[in-house]
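I have a small job for you when you get a moment. Would you make up a two-line entry for one protein for me to read? No commentary is needed, just the two lines. Write everything out right here, beneath this request.
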Amino acid sequence: MPQHSFPSSALKGRFHILWATALAAVVLATAFHFDTPVLAWFSKDLTREMAHSATAISRWGDWPPLAAGIGAILFTAAACRAQAIARGALVILLAASLAGSTASALRMFTGRARPMAKIAPGWHGPHSGRHKLNSFPSAHTAVVAGAAVATALLVPWSTVPACTLILLMAWARMRAGAHHLSDVVAGALLGGFLASWLLSRIPARWPAWGWLSTRANDPTGRLKDMLATESATPNA
């Protein structure tokens, strides 16, 4: 008589998704609750140095310069035949791009007024891309979170620096008066979810990428393993 394992792997996967969704909902609800006091705190004691720092972080952490930097790594690695690094850079670039474009699309429907906008606060619904209504979710934070989470999944030792970059961008966007706490939290959650989803889907889409196919069974695989595998394979 055949024995069946319970719960099945599919059921475990669904449980993990439900658990993660519930946790994200609690975190986001908590962020909404603290929107007003956090905004009031960020509005105090804004020095010129803080303002310049927030502006610089926002500018250099946006998608265009971030994509340019990752793209430079990608093409340099490809030119040096470091295929593992090139493929990793491409995945990180895709994660950042997917997160940023999704956040930009969502906020055209939410229409939440930015804290610094001189219009009625709240949710104004769908709009045609008005900057003052592009508060929720934060696309800057989503882009950085997408790139950071993808990097952390590919290179586990980078987790702490990656999380630090997400927090730094969230601070910069709130300090600049561009977003509420819930906006940056939603952007970070969105970027992290999409990066995780992308890494889980790539093996099925690109099976020829042998080192990526290990992501499904070994989510903590290391870049050095990829490089070791690549160096052991003679060049054609």
